[in-house]
Design brief:
Layout lengths: L2 H23 L8 H32 L5 H20 L4 H26 L1
Helix pairs in contact: 1-2, 1-4, 2-3, 3-4
């Protein structure tokens, strides 16, 4: 796979991870039926992809410029992005929610790195 295609696919996959988490754990209707989970996934994916474009793409371009795209840098940027997103959305995040979003961001960053690396080999 070409490097640009693997990077785009990595961003799409990384955006799906928090959307799946949100849809399965916290569906918008409060009921875990298929319709609610799918609907929540599409809504959450819209916001996750937007966050990836606004925060993830500049972070990736900066890391790529300095040849620092590694699992630990992707996780660190994901942690910062996840924490920043919840602080911007709520402007007063509780520590438990902040930790959950930072952890989700870190896992998303590592997933991005794994998919990008797998697509390049």
């Amino acid at each position: 796979m070409k490097p640009a295609a693997s990077t785009v696919f990595a961003f799409l996959a990384a955006s799906a991870f928090p959307a799946v988490y949100q849809a399965v754990v916290y569906p918008l209707s409060g009921v875990r039926d298929l319709q609610s989970v799918l609907g929540t996934f599409f809504v959450a994916y819209y916001f996750a992809a937007g966050s990836a474009v606004v925060l993830g793409v500049p972070a990736y371009l900066l890391l790529e410029r300095f040849k620092l795209v590694r699992w630990w840098s992707a996780m660190g940027c994901g942690i910062l992005a996840g924490a920043l997103v919840i602080v911007v959305i709520t402007s007063n995040a509780e520590p438990a929610i902040l930790f959950r979003f930072a952890s989700l961001g870190g896992a998303t960053g590592v997933l991005f790195w794994i998919v990008r690396r797998a697509g390049r080999t």
